[in-house]
Amino acid sequence: MTLKGYKQWNYVQVETDDGLTGIGEAHPGAGIAEIILQFKKTLVGADPRNIEPLYHRMIGAASNRYAMGLSAIGGIETALWDLLGKSLGVPVYQLLGGKYRDRIRLYADVGHGKGNTPEGWAQRAREGVADGYQAIKFDIDNSANELKQDAVNRELSTAELQKMTSLVAAAREAAGDGIDISIDCHSLFSTHSAMKLAERLEPFDLMFLEDPVPNDNVEAMAKVSAATSIPICTGEFLFRRDGFRELIQTQACDMLHVDVSGTGGMLEAKKIADLADLYYIPFAAHNITSPIGMTATAHVCAAVRNFIVMELPYHADQVEWRWDLAISSGPLMQDNAFVVPDQPGLGVEINAEVAREHLMPGSDHFGTS
Ligand SMILES: [Mg+2]
Fold it and tell me: Disulfide-capable partner of 264 in 80, 102, 109, 240 (CB 3.0 to 4.6 Å)?
């Protein structure tokens, strides 16, 4: 099932012969729903409790379309955990080893400021703080495009650096000292430009600087990390433990930003976190899913020791019905933290009525109209 959310939100339901069902949310985006259905032949007739073997069976079947295959697998794997939890009467975090915490700290991704001016960034910072968030993240890429000397060469001009610094300074002043501020660069800068930007942003006590350079080159990421005291964070476009192995083992970054729905699912994300914990690297969760996927991510965040913060896609607030989509025994959000459900499985169900109102053209509610 695919809904018209902030992006295309994709959902999976698995069913057993004895009538149990499990739900999961795949990574958002177009084309994922079709891939989910292609995995059906890999799964029908299998014992759904064998989650890790089934995961590897799907990885094998997805080898020619890796990233989108993993986006689909994340939803299916989550649905298998939901199913197993329900069949055993325990929440999924219990099956992942148990929970370290009941509530998941969130950061609000506020995107750009209200206009890329110091006052615009200050205003957005004030709004985030007024809404109760203790941690907010801005996107600094494309915030000074009018000063660019070349559209594609990754270089930051002195004028761009000066403007970007003034934006962050304004946000810090408006937010006050007690608020965590992070900055996302979206992989757009050259190594030396990233180092210059980090140097200028050092006085503002950032929680992390994300993807200052593209994540394809571990040595470049390591060079930026070594040059600054700001924690360098990356990972939302890396897949499975294989994608994180070199980054973690060479300690080329200071913090991971793992997308549970996109990297391969709940158990794979937990394993990535555990690998990072061997190097005392904290685990943050990237997240652009609806509250169903957020709940799955929250179970992982509850069950990893080195968790630090989870993304609340604040700009998805424009999807007014998003919290109505999730049915849970208690509120999922309390005091701007995400409450990990204690009910069996994920502890959350999809409100079919709300879902039907927002179906993508050509999609249906798990085979029913
Ligand atoms: Mg990012």
Answer: 240
